[in-house]
Design goal:
By secondary structure, this protein is mainly alpha-helical. The chain contains three helices and no strands. Helix 1 packs across helix 3.
């Protein structure tokens, strides 16, 4: 569970919202099937960045950058 380490409800909500927004940016446009592996990898990236992000938009931006950089 990528977000199991998050204990603060505010951090958890930020992480979930950022994951949804980031996934819309990086999800393969031609994917017919839900890419569970890619989404899980993105969720772990989001969870790792929650503590350093300024806000939800910053968290999304950082997560997308890291996801694309490590692809």
């Amino acid at each position: 569970m990528p977000f199991s380490s998050l204990n603060d409800p505010v951090d958890l909500a930020r992480a979930q919202a950022a994951l949804e927004a980031a996934w819309k940016d990086v999800k393969p446009a031609n994917a017919d099937v839900f890419d569970e592996q890619g989404r899980t990898r993105l969720a772990y990236i989001v969870a790792a960045l929650v503590a350093v992000a300024e806000d939800e938009d910053d968290l999304k931006r950082r997560a997308v950058e890291r996801y694309r950089h490590t692809s």
